[in-house]
Amino acid sequence: MTEQPEVLITEEEIKKRVQALGAQISEDYKDVEDVYMLGVLRGAFIFLADLSRVLTVPRRVDFIALSSYESPSTAATGAVRLVLDVRAPLRGKHVLVVEDIVDTGYTLQYLLRTLQAREPASLKTASLLQKPDRLEVPISIDYLGFTIPDKWVVGYGLDWGDRFRTLPYIGVVHPPDEVA
Ligand code: 5GP
User: Which residue has its alpha carbon closest to ligand 1 atom 12?
Assistant: First the structure.
């Protein structure tokens, strides 16, 4: 059996940071008619749920899902594809992409290119976590929760083989071959 993940970021720390991000986003979008929050399934569902509820500006919520290509040839380029798209056109909308974690950055880079082509009025990103040591492409995150070390993290929406998504904190799992 896998051991319980080791706590990296507590429930209280996440709550405070989400409140602060929400305040900053609400200030930045105060003159905007509607913020179109776009959650990236599945990992961002809890972050999106909490973040969307602390905003004080009008907002809508929608989801997209991406899938990575698994073959070795495409892994090198970080190729991803859209498997669930938004329900409405994005043209003229103020889109805020809500991600769980930015690792190499390929996923977000693909997503931003794809969404930019649809001519939104503005396009920004919020990510709960980022592993700066792993970044391979030049992207910047407008609203970042925490930077973390290069470890596999779970909880608050993030999984390991579909486990641990509902943990209230961010924890580190140690794969069995790493455990002494
Ligand atoms: P990127 O394209 O930036 O390399 O990868 C981003 C995606 O990889 C995230 O949306 C997430 O699905 C997955 N990912 C990267 N690092 C972690 C991690 O530490 N834990 C979990 N659960 N997923 C991760």
Answer: 43
